[in-house]
Known about the structure:
This protein is of the alpha+beta class. It is about 35% helix and about 25% strand.
Amino acid sequence: MLILTRKIGEGIILGDDIRIAVLEIRGKQIRIGIEAPSDVVVLREEIYQRIQEENLRAAGVRDVDLKEITKIWKQKKENEPGPPKNSE
C-alpha cells in the first residue's frame, strides 16, 4: 500500500484520468473529491463490500453438480425422437 500525505487542495493522480483531491479536514473526517470518467465506477468501500456479498449470495443460491446436469442432459437427448427417416 502506498501511503501519501496531502494537504487541503492537494491531490493524487491515478492513471491518466482519475484525480483525488483533499477538500476539507474536519476533526476525524476528511472530505475528498474524485474526478473520474463516467465509465469508471466510484463507490465507498462499505457499499462495494455489500455489493460483493450480495453477488456471492445470489450466485450461491444453489450449488449445481455439473456431472448431474450432464447426466440429465444425456437422458433427455436419448429420449428425444430423432429426425424422420427417409424411406425410399
